[in-house]
Design a protein that fits this description.
Elements (H helix, E strand, L loop, with lengths): L1 H10 L12 E13 L4 E12 L4 E17 L2 E13 L5 E17 L2 E14 L5 E11 L10 E11 L5 E13 L4 E12 L8 E13 L1
């Protein structure tokens, strides 16, 4: 996993321009696999790449693996994950971060809509920076519509990031997308994301837009 990240970093030389600017347009690529260990536990692995400057500059990569306990309670999944993150800084150097996280996902229905609410508790062990805890909450609405043979289904989601320090609430992401299903074991989505951040000591306004693709194989 770390070797793969190192190869990616080596293939993209350092640049002097900032990795992300206000108003930047990006491309995010997410790919993953999962398989059931038994009736209760599922193993997951995901790899994510983010490209800034119109999708031309790789500035972020993470590898994430974990275990999901599916029968913790009715309509509740419990996940235990570890994520290794590499982020390009303003002068082109790469920083790494160890990020274990606990996920509690509630699933249900609201009228005819399938909804989920994921609470994520993260511990951020960042190179040359203070370690901190962060809470993320993502609420997703899936609409009861299907288009084409791929069974395209529209969804909306909103995610907030809250640091357990003086920054508090400092990031919001709004998603709109279409999920699809190629077969019983292959699924994914294409989405648009708008993100607004509040850098330390500043107001809201560091905005980006991104087009993302997600692909998952379930064994």
């Amino acid at each position: 996993m770390y070797c793969f990240a190192a190869l990616i970093i080596a293939a993209f030389p350092a640049q002097k321009c900032p990795a992300v600017d206000d108003g930047d347009f990006q491309y995010w690529s997410i790919n993953g696999v999962s398989f059931d260990i038994d009736n209760n536990w599922t193993f997951t692995f995901d790899e994510e790449l983010r490209f800034s400057e119109g999708g031309t500059n790789l500035y972020y990569q993470h590898s994430d693996f974990g275990l999901v306990y599916k029968n913790f309670a009715d309509n509740v999944d419990l996940g235990f994950n570890f994520r290794k993150v590499f982020t390009k800084q303003g002068r082109g150097e790469w920083n790494s971060e160890n990020l274990p996280h606990l996920n509690i996902t509630l699933k249900g229905r609201l009228f005819d809509l399938a909804v989920s609410n994921r609470s994520r508790f993260e511990y951020r062990d960042i190179d040359e920076s203070e370690n901190l805890f962060r809470y993320r909450n993502k609420f997703t609405i899936n609409f009861p519509l299907e288009f084409t043979e791929l069974k395209l289904k529209p969804y909306l989601a909103d995610e907030v990031f809250i640091n357990f320090d003086e920054d508090g609430l400092n990031t919001n992401r709004l998603y709109s997308g279409l999920s699809y299903k190629f077969s019983k074991n292959i699924s994914g989505s294409i989405f648009h994301l708008w993100q607004s951040r509040k850098p330390t000591g500043q107001g809201w306004g560091e905005n980006i837009n991104a087009i993302g693709t997600q692909f998952r194989i379930r064994f």
